Amino acid sequence: MKRLLTKWGKGFGIYLALMVVFPFVMPDEYYRSVGIIIGLHAIVTIGLCLVMGLAGQISLGQAAFWGIGAYTSAVLTTKYGLSPLVGLVASAIIPGLFAFILGRAIAGLQGYYLAMATLAFGYIVQIGITEWEPVTGGASGMISIPQVPLFGGSELSMYYLIWAIVTCVLLFSLNLMHSRVGRAFRAIHKSEIAATSMGVDVRKFKLNAFVVSGMFAGISGGLYAHYMGILDPQPFGLHESIKFLTMVVIGGMTSIWGALIGTVLIGFISEGLILLSEVIPGLQGDVDTIVFGGILVLIVMFMPEGLVPRIRSAYEKAQAKKAKELAAKTQSGERVERKAAT
Questions:
Q1: Strand, coil or helix: 284
Q2: How many CB atoms lie within 10 A of CB 287?
Q3: Residue of 79, 80, 76 whose CA lies nearest to 91
């Protein structure tokens, strides 16, 4: 962890400063709520990055785990009177169990077949939430979901709670990425056959990534339920899964920081489209789906590695060029000195 913080010290410091300052730079409650939603999405996308970027799996059902976590905590607190803190713990465990069962069932699938299996799971969960009316409230949803009883339950305290969890998830994921487990994930991503020949249990590591990703999404869902106070099945479908996928791809599938930055970018683009639709009525409806789909296509075509890896690569090339020029200048100066000496 110490080595990790040393490596990412400057970037992590900038991240913390922006996170702390944002509510005061944008004191309007609307922008605080935008920051909260972006934080909730970031927890999901960091988990999705572990699945896609490290373990090399395609998941189109991440919103399903988000929904399972949300409804788990909402049902336990509204129907059984349990504390929201207990509900949040359950919102991590139950989606993790679903992810374990699904991961075991689809362990042998790859590529399009894996994508279709997770897509089908997403549809099943959304239909199940809608039809299980006695428990979930069906299409009408649930109301009066209690707030998390920490720091007074204000908008500002919820913002810092959620971003504190984002920070924990970020540190865990960065540490995992640079550990022995992370190296095994990257080996699987490059070649499952090569990883197997080196003694890596491919199915075990894929399943672990899937479970961790499901738990992250579930925690985010539980927090979403308690923040919103109401729930309905609509936000937990394919549209949201595609949005999560776009966030990861635009930032860079192999970069944890990329998942976070992609989430922030798409979050503000989404809010910008909402504000623009108030000025241009023709933009109302599912225009955001078209925009996100277009962004996804353009990124895959022209920047498949994603934004953060591309910027990092350009920076490393610039540093290498600078070092080469400096070495050439130093060598030239040494030659001049030798000539002068003789």
A1: coil
A2: 15
A3: 76
Query: Do the Cβ atoms of 79 and 61 come closer than 8 Å?
Result: no
Task: Quote the CA–CA distance of 339 and 342 in Å, as a whole number.
Answer: 5
Place of tokens 């465990």: 93
Task: Provide the sign of the torsion angle of the four alpha carbons 71, 22, 246, 308, taken in this order.
Answer: negative
Q: Which two tokens stand for residue 31?
A: 């922008």
Q: Please provide the DSSP assignment of 123-177 as one string.
A: HHHHHHHHH-HHHH-GGG-B--PPPP-SGGG-HHHHHHHHHHHHHHHHHHHHHHH
Residue 341: the pLDDT is 65
Query: What is the C-alpha R_g of the chain?
Result: 23
SS3 content of the chain, % helix, strand, coil (to 5): 80, 0, 15
At residue 74's C-alpha, the angle toward residues 70 and 76, to 5°, is: 120
Q: What is the pLDDT of residues 234-280, one digit of tens each?
A: 889 888 998 899 899 998 888 889 999 999 999 988 888 887 877 77
At residue 169's C-alpha, the angle toward residues 164 and 170, to 5°, is 95
Model confidence pLDDT, tens digit, residues 33-91:
999 999 999 999 999 999 887 777 888 889 999 999 999 999 999 999 899 999 999 99
Half-sphere exposure of 316 (CA within 13 A, CB side): 6
Q: Give pLDDT tens digits for 154-203.
A: 888 899 999 999 999 999 998 888 888 878 877 777 777 777 777 778 78
